[in-house]
Amino acid sequence: MPPKSSSIQTAGPIRVSPNGRYFVDAQGRPFFWLGDTAWPLFARYSKEDAEKYLADRAQKGFTVVQGVLAWGGGTGFEGQTPGPNYAGHRPWLDGPDRPNEAYFQHVDYLLRFAQERGLILAMLPTWGYYVSDIKTFNVENARVYGRWLGAHYKDQPNIVWVNGGDRIPTRCEEVYRALAHGLREGDGGAHLITYHPCGWRSSAQFFHQDDWLDLNMIETWTEWPKVYPAVLADSLLLPTKPVVLGEGAYENGPEYPLGPITPLIVRRQAWWAFMAGGFITYGQDQMWRMSPGWTSTFDTPGAQHMAQFRAIASSRPWWKRVPDQGLFASGVSCERTLNAAVRSVDSDWAMIYLSSQCHVLIHLDKILTKRVQVTWVDPRNGEQRDAGTYATGNLVEGTFPQPKSQWFSVLGHWEDAVLILDGVS
Questions:
Q1: Is it the case that residue 370 has pLDDT exceeding 70?
Q2: Whose C-alpha in 26, 69, 275, 413 is 20 to 30 A from the C-alpha of 182?
Q3: What is the per-residue pLDDT for 10?
Q4: pTM for the complete prediction?
């Protein structure tokens, strides 16, 4: 077992909230999933690079990092066996049912390092290539491997297990189930488990009713205009489970038909996922590929905008949000320029994401106070501008409230905007 750290900052393990819509920490406090993608973290990052990267992500406000234990190079570049880590150790000896203790000592260290900085590591036991493509895994050795991992990390709090690995499970469902069941047997249910699919797919399409699937994970990849409907659809399923956009379009990714993937597109994906009731894991193309100069990509605009995204989104009690496109009287738009909104369950605040230069007519009477204060926020840098205080038409004399709406126009030099409505007495 990895030794326990003396300076624990992660309030894990995280759990699913009582209503099934978000995450809570070990003290029951809402936990905001803002992930980053570092698929080769355990296999190819040197100790020094991993420390620098994890410290940077924690400082920026990321709370989760996704990485793969048995990494083969990424889809289309996989080797026949998972590659070694920076010290030359491979994850398995003769196969998945014989984990290599030397390899996992480095994993143990990175988990402790991340824990001390408040980070959850969402770990994929294997890239899906070794299950779905070359069949290294079968039902028997998958369960053994999962059980070993679960037992080895049973007492390590900052873990979420991610089954799959950029593959749909078709024709291999029972192998992926065996891996999940092994994890659960090993750790006794200490950690959440999800499944990472590929293409324009969701874990819910394959495993939503499985009792080991604690949260749903979606990949939209190049199909970034589908983020909002994909997340919303999973949020409406029963039983209710949290939803994470685990892989969207990567910032600066060169291969996308709907590219280029600019910081604006990165922001749209994050805000659409949030407005649909879900969470997001960001990614930077050069970083996950470890292309030449990848260590210079820690401070790309998209990564910095994700820090602003979390700050703005969590400035109100975000765990009380419900998607509500009914806030728009006009101007909701669609697809690539979709505008989206949430309000609190108590109808005392709302957030509206406007994804482009546009004009919208907003139902102020959705806020059940007498007046509403409106604030513009620039999602690039958090700059705030007063947008006025208005009567809502609520709490007036008479039987019926008075319908009130107001036009708003995105400020002239902003690419997109967040409009926050706060009820005031």
A1: yes
A2: 26
A3: 64
A4: 0.96
